[in-house]
TrEMBL record:
Family membership: Belongs to the enoyl-CoA hydratase/isomerase family.
Protein name: Enoyl-CoA hydratase
Domain annotation Peroxisomal multifunctional enzyme type 2-like N-terminal: ranges: 18-147
Listed GO biological process terms: fatty acid beta-oxidation
Pfam family name, one: MFE-2_hydrat-2_N
MaoC-like domain mapped to chain residues: 164-261
Highest rank taxon of the organism: Bacteria
GO molecular function, one term: enoyl-CoA hydratase activity
Gene3D superfamilies: Hotdog Thioesterase
Amino acid sequence: MAIDPAVAVGAELPEVTFSWSASDVALYHLAVGAARDPLGVEGLRYVDDANPKVLPTFATVAASFHATQAPAVSFPGIDIDLAKVVHGSQQITAHQPLPPKGKATTRKRIVEVQDKGSAAVIISEGVTVDETGEPLWTERSSIFAKGEGGFGGERGASSKVVYPDRDPDRRLTVPTLPNQALLYRLCGDRNPLHSDPAFAARAGFPRPILHGLCTYGSVCRAVVDDMLDGDVTAVDDFSATFAGVVFPGETLDVAVWEDSDRLLVTAAVADRDGAPALANVVLGTRG
């Protein structure tokens, strides 16, 4: 059995201690479309040599930033072919503004394995603390494993966001570069699904796709820049469901609704008649 829920659920994953630099942060920001205008003063703050501002979504790559090998989907009670796996959802809660450089430790565990019939969803939670033990961020993510369901588990609760019954308050156009997946993979995600045409074909795609977390970071950055005047410290929480694929070079149509102290967001692919890219997107702001 590729998944044994009795072993997987509650399993603690190996503790990871890592460090990052201002250059790592700057590269991540370039990979999610920051500083596209080299004369834009606010955009250049994302790539400052010594003290760049830091998007909370940098937390999704910080621990594995210097990885050079493709990840393995091998955890206690779980052993799945990487070609069967796509990212399902991601949430980052920032407990404080992320520093431009530092050292931290992440402790992560498997909290749930859902049985969707034709697929399984594996959900993990992790807490990252700095060298003094103060929490920096908490993350919750899920991966969708095709062909691994049917083991008799629970389907899991829905996390669908209810959007206002009105036009969005803002629409943003977020372009991606044809080589953006190749740039983003330098942030530590070496999954060949995003760089190897033959591997992408084996996974059922006509060509390599953009990393879901690249779309996630790009949309967060665009919303922060437009709706929060570029203030990355105003973001308390950012969550999204990966609703479809994005191919490098496509343009995202991002809709934003203001809803009290949070922003509700969707992202669709303009090039393919609004095919969904991100759904159930919530950006919570600090009060």
